[in-house]
Specification:
The chain has helices spanning about 30-35, 55-65, 85-90, 125-135, 155-160; strands at about 10-15, 25-30, 50, 70-75, 80-85, 115-120, 140-145, 145-150. The chain is of the alpha/beta class. Strand 7 (about 140-145) and strand 8 (about 145-150) form a beta hairpin.
Length: about 170
């Protein structure tokens, strides 16, 4: 057959509150459109942080209680790094007597630096490139020097797996 063109759009994004359709549950758009969306649409705004002088064991407890895998590390209200659950678990093997090296180790000694940051109006494609280029799982979203959110690798997948562009409640941990 001549003159027939096909367009494969295997990845779709659900856009909530489509303009002109009040109360609409959402509309599917090609992922290419989602890639141009700002990170502010998908980032987590309820950011949990730790201080650089906090102990690594405290950071792990905070991660578990808030069900997050990355924590921005602050010092004098500045973002100085990011600590991940993976990094903490690698160091947290308990020795004899049940003591963990995390109980004495300050977060500043194990956090990843420099923190990778983007403004909230940066595009999701830019965030994906940054996450792919650097060995980090989380970006800090900064607006005029203030931490306003975080964006992790899993957040980029959320529109595809949950059909929503807002963080919403996290599923229970298993």
């Amino acid at each position: 057959v001549t003159g027939v063109q096909t367009c494969a759009l295997p990845i779709l994004d659900l856009v909530e509150n489509w303009p002109g359709l009040p109360g609409s549950p959402g509309v599917l758009l090609p992922a290419a459109a989602a890639a141009g969306a700002p990170v502010g649409r998908v980032m987590h705004t309820a950011v949990v942080t730790v201080h650089a002088s906090d102990r690594a064991g405290q950071a792990l407890a905070v991660m578990r209680s808030h069900r997050v895998h990355h924590l921005p590390v602050l010092d004098d209200h500045r973002i100085v790094g990011v600590v991940s659950e993976r990094d903490l678990r690698a160091l947290g093997r308990r020795g004899e007597g049940g003591a963990s090296p995390l109980d004495a180790l300050p977060v500043v000694q194990i956090m990843r630096t420099p923190p990778r940051t983007l403004p909230p109006d940066a595009r999701l494609a830019e965030a994906a490139d940054l996450l792919r280029q650097h060995p980090v799982g989380c970006l800090c979203i900064v607006d005029h020097g203030q931490l306003v959110g975080t964006l992790c690798r899993a957040d980029l997948l959320r529109p595809l797996t949950r059909g929503a562009t807002s963080p919403g409640p996290r599923p229970p941990r298993r």
